[in-house]
Amino acid sequence: MKQVKNKNMLVLVVIVIVTLTSSIGYSALQSNLKITADLSVLKDYIPDGTLYDMMHHISEMDNTSSKYVSSPSGIDFSEVSSDTNGKGVYELYTTKDEKYPIHYYRGEVDNNVIFANFCWKIVRTTETGGIRLIYNGEPSGDGKCDNNGDKTEIGTLAYNENSDDAKYVGYKYDNDTVDSTVKEYIDSWYEENIENKKDSKGASYSTYLDDSFFCNDRSISSRSGNTIYYSSYTRNAEDHAPSLACAEEDKFTISSGKLTYPVGLITLDELAYAGGEYNDTTSKFYLRTGRTYWTMSPYYFNGVHSFVGLISPEGIFHNRVVYDERDVRPVVSLKHDTKYLSGNGTKDTPFLITPITRSLYNVIKTNSVLDNAKSEYVESETGIDFSQISSDTNGKGVYELHTTVTDKYPIYYYRGAVTDNNIIFANFCWKIIRTTSSGGIKIIYTGSPTSDNKCTNTTDSNTQIGTSAYNSDYDEAKYVGYKYDNDEVDSTIKTKVDSWYKTNIDEKKDASGKSYTNYIEDLEFCNDRSSKMSGSNYFYGAFDRNYGHKTPSLICPQDEDKFTVANEKLTYPVGLITVDEVAYAGGVHDTSNSTYYLYTNQWHWTMSPSYFQGGAEVWGVSSVGGINNYYVNSNNGVRPILSLISTTQVIGTGTSDDPYIVVEN
Asked: How many CB atoms lie under 10 A from the CB of residue 45?
C-alpha cells in the first residue's frame, strides 16, 4: 500500500470522479471536479485543480514495487511498459528532493488533454513544475480525443534538408544560428495555431505556456573511426538508462535565445520513460500511434549521414535526417499553476484546460442533411412536406436548403423538436433559426439565462421582451409595413424592438470592453409587401406562399422590402422572424404544433404581411404553435431577431443545460 506523502497518519479520502459531457460549455466550467486514478490508493490531499498536483498525488515511486511494478527495485527500462513493469503515473526517484519532483506517465494510461482546441497527451512534469504535452490531433465533434495514425501529427517532413555533416542532428546548427527544417515547420504551426489564437477571454494561448527547456542533447558518448555516437543513443539503445539531464548548451529555451516560441519535440529519453524500448514492437504505451515521428534526440553520425532518434511502429529507432518525410508532433509545456476545468483524462472526457471553441456555422453545417431527400427523420423520398407540421417523420434536426447547395454559404435551418439550438449571446438566451446567405447565424430571443447559465425558458412570457401592437392603426394597407409612408415612419413594433436593442445590445459591452454590435452582421430583414389585388383587398406574397401553396421561401421579392442598416431602412441590425422561417421551422397555417422549438404557448409577431380586407393583418405564431394572421393593432409578443457574424466562435453543445456561448474576443 502506498504511503501518504507529508503526513504522519493515513487519511482515507474518497474522491469522486465526475464524468461530464465531452463537448464542454459554460455550465461545465463551474464544476468542482476532483480526480483520482485509483480509489484503492490512500490519499492525504484532494487535488486543487492543477494538473501538477493531480499527478503528484496519484504517483508511485519508480524505484520500488507497486501495483503495476512487480520488481522490488522498480521499473526496468530495458523492458517495455506493462502491467508488471509500469502503467500509471510515476515519480522519478532521483528528483524526489527537488522543489518540483518529476512525474511521468507510463504505459497504457488516461492522460488526454484538450488545450487551445487541440488534443494532447501528458508526457511528464518539468523541472519548473510545468506539464509537458505532446500534440495528438483535433477533438471530435463531441469533444473526444481518440486519435491515432496520421490524425496525431501536424504534417510530415524531413528533419533537415541535408545530412552529410554531423551538425545536421541539431534542432539548430551552425552555432545555433540556423533553424532546422523541422523547427521552421513547428514554429510556423505554433505561430498560427497557438500564438495568434485566443481563448474565450481574449488571451493568447501562448500565455498558458512555460519556457521550460527542450533538450537537443548533442553530447558525444563515443567515437569509432568516423562514426560519432551521441549520448541519447548510448543511454537508450545500449545502457537502457534514460535521463532528463541536459548540458546547458543543448537546452533550448526562449530566454536563452535559441527558441522563438516555447515549442519543440519529444526526446528519446521521454519515450523510454513512457514505456518504449529500442527495436521493440510489442508495447502498447500511449506514445505509439502506428506512425513514425521525429524526436529531438541526435543518434549518431556515420561519417556520411546524420541520424536522429524517432518512434516507429517497430519501437524506438533512428532515421537519417533527410530520410523519407516523418510525422511531426509538437511538444509544449503548460505552466505550473495550470488548472483543469473538468474531465478525467480519458479519451471520452479529456482534461479540459481551455474550452473547445468552434465555428458555429461549421457546427451547424456538419450536423445537416438535405431537405429534399429521405433521411432519419424524414420518411418521404422527396423530402420535407411543408404542408404538414414538423414531426419525427417530417423533419427534426438541421437541414440544408436544397436550392442553395451551390451557393458560397448554403442555408442551414433548424426544424422541429430540436434541443441543441440554444445559444447565449450578450447575456441573453436565443434559439438558432438558420444560417444566412453570408454565413451568419440568425437567432431569436428567448429570455434570460439562469444563474448557472442554462437556457430553460421555453413556454412562457419570459421568451419575449414584452408585448406590443404591430401598429396602433389598422384601417389602411400601409400598416402592414415594418415602416410605412414611403418607409419614413417606424411601426409601433419597430420602435419597441429598436428601443430594446439600443439599451440591451448597442449600449452594452463584452468583457473586453467591445460593443456587442461588433458580433452582429447587417442582415437583410424582409417585410415582403409584394401583393395581388382582389377588388379593394390586398393579398401579400407570404399569404400566397404559406396559406395557399405551402411553399415557404427565403427570397425577398422586392428590393424596397429589404430592410438593412446599409440602406438606411433600419437604425439597428435587428428585426423579427418571417412567416416563411416559421414554416421551415415546422409551423403550418392554422395547425397546432406544440413540439417544435418556436412554440412558446404565447402569441408572437412575425414581420410578414398577410392581407388587407378592411383591416391590415400580419402573420404571427399562435399560442398553440400554428401560423395565423392578426389585425396589426392586436397586442402580441415581441421576440427580436439578430444575425451573428459568420466568424462566430462558440463553446458548448447547444442544449438548454449547456447552451452554445459566443466566445468574446
From this structure: 15
Share of the chain above pLDDT 90, in %: 78
Other beta carbons within 10 Å of 279:
10
At residue 341, what is the residue type? L
pLDDT in tens, 364-405: 998 999 999 999 999 999 999 999 999 999 999 999 999 999
Amino acid letter, residue 470: Y
Report the b/e string of 390-407 with b at 16+ CB within 10 A.
bbeebbbbbbbbeeeeee
**At residue 502, what is the residue type?**
K
pLDDT digits (tens, 9 = 90+) for 564-579: 999 999 999 999 999 9
Find the mean pLDDT for residues 259-278. 94
Hey, how many other C-beta atoms are within 10 angstroms of the C-beta on 366?
Answer: 12
Helices (H), 152-274: 181-190, 231-233, 268-274
Q: Say how far apart CA 564 and CA 97 lie, in whole Å.
A: 68
In this model, does residue 281 exceed pLDDT 60? yes
Distance CA 512, CA 51 (A): 28
Sign of the C-alpha dihedral, residues 456, 460, 464, 465? negative
Q: Name the DSSP letter for residue 105.
A: E
CB burial readout 590-602, b (16+ within 10 A) else e = eeebebbbbbbeb
What Rg do the C-alpha atoms of the chain give, in angstroms? 31
pLDDT in tens, 102-136: 999 999 999 999 999 999 999 999 999 999 999 99
Q: Where would I find the beta strands (DSSP E) of 180-338?
A: 214-215, 220-224, 227-230, 251-252, 293-301, 306-312, 315-320, 326-328, 331-334
- Give the HSE-up count for residue 278: Cα atoms under 13 Å, Cβ half-sphere: 17
Instruction: Name the H helices within 127-234.
Output: 181-190, 231-233
Question: How many C-beta atoms surround the C-beta of residue 128 within 10 A?
Answer: 15
Run of H or E residues at 52: helix 51-56
Q: What is the grid cell recorded at 582?
A: 416559421
Lowest mean pLDDT among 39-48, 182-191, 546-555: 39-48
Has residue 47 got a pLDDT over 70?
no
End-to-end CA gap in the chain: 49
For the entire predicted model, the pTM comes to 0.70
- What is the spatial distance between Cα 427 and Cα 450, in angstroms, rounded to a whole number? 10
